[in-house]
Amino acid sequence: xDNTKNNDIAYENAFTKPIIRAGRYTxxxxxxxxxxxxxxxxxxxxxxxxxxxxxxxxxxxxxVYGSWYIVEPVSYFPILGMPGTYMSFLSGNIANMRVPxxxxxxxxxxxxxxxxxxELVATxxxxxxxxxxxxxxxIAAVAGNAIIGVFPExxxxxxxxxxxxxxGALFVMFSIKYPKYGVFAISVxxxxxxxxxxxxxxxxxxxxVFSTIGFAVKTHKKEKTD
Amino acid sequence: MSDYLxxxxxxxxxxxxxxxxxxxxxxxxxxxxxxxxxxxxxxLTRKEAMHAFRAGAISAIGPAVAVFIVMLGMxxxxxxxxxxxxxxxxxxxxxxxxxxxxxxxxxxxxxxSPEYGVTAFATSFWTMxxxxxGWLLFCGLFTHKLExxxxxxxxxxxxxxxxxxxxxxLGVMAYLTTGHLLAGGGxxxxxxxxxxxxxxxxxxxxxxxxLKEYNLGLAMVxxxxxxxxxx
Lengths: 226, 231
Prior knowledge:
- The complex is a heterodimer.
- Chain A is mainly alpha-helical.
- Chain A has ten helices and no strands.
- In chain A, helix 4 crosses helix 10 (201-225), helix 5 packs parallel to helix 8 (162-177) and helix 8 (162-177) crosses helix 9 (179-196).
- Chain B folds into two domains: 1-155, no CATH class; 157-231, no CATH class.
- Classes of the chains: A mainly alpha, B mainly alpha.
- The interface between A and B is large, with 158 and 158 residues.
């Protein structure tokens, strides 16, 4: 018993604490770095909008995405874990890339969900996906227009359907593990999006996530007492 | 219209975009190193850790190629260097294009119209940048708080923690899939075919574990191509 406790402390010191420090620094430092291009446009090309226009643009975009700044991290946290959240919200492409890659890495290594090992495996899997994305995006930026001609048209068209295919496949993969939660979650989704239809989208994600979590916690406690 | 594109493709902009892109890669490397160092504490072997990295890297290829295709359209409106920055970074193509649009609207100009010049382009980019910092700021400041909140809810019960993760995953995927199911047509076909393929692959990979790494990629390709055949 003492051993596991020592191990927990060692893990906290070797991983959790340094990750929080590094995650915080990298994200907060990325903020000034992301302003370099607009500052350059101003200094080198004199392209600076009036302050009023910058603030109006900011206001408009916050009115569209402002709630997502909080809703997404909170909703994805139970899937991505702490290190995964720091990485995913710096690198973007969360639902279509980070989440599937973390899931596949954990699946391949057969880790116990929710364990520390699962957390490390997700961290490493997400890192792998970030490196792939950086390579592909860099190739596309430099030589994309030359390369795209090589793909047959049907291949390019097929990529219109990449999102429904990934989401459908992941939904089934996890429904096989947790059939009850799967049925519950898809029913909630269908009722909200197909029947009720008036709930704003930014509220739909947390409703789907937290109602399913609530259902899981409830059934788990019931199973424990039975 | 073309004069702002000259500015947008200014070679110096690659250099200006570089530090933020490097930060993304650097963070991934720092986190991986930390995870490798901590691995013996949770009996994760080096070989397994390498395997996890490979699984993540391979599974990202399909989605990354999709980003590649979307990128080409985006490069034609905001230039190559800044597309490179925005798609290596927080955000995704649709988010960035909405931000570009909002920036133009803030100046009273239509995105892509002949009046859309260098200043309008700068406003678009200010809007994208300011939008991105919303997530960076929230996660930079509060991610560790989410960790303590989760630990409180699960109360140290790792089985429950795993179930919470599974339930959250199903909640998100149910929401994302439902949108495509209700859209019908190719999107419905892609989601259903990929889901059925996954069900078959999960059964097969119970006896052929080496297949697991490719399940998602294979299901994705099946869904995409069946959908494109029918549409």
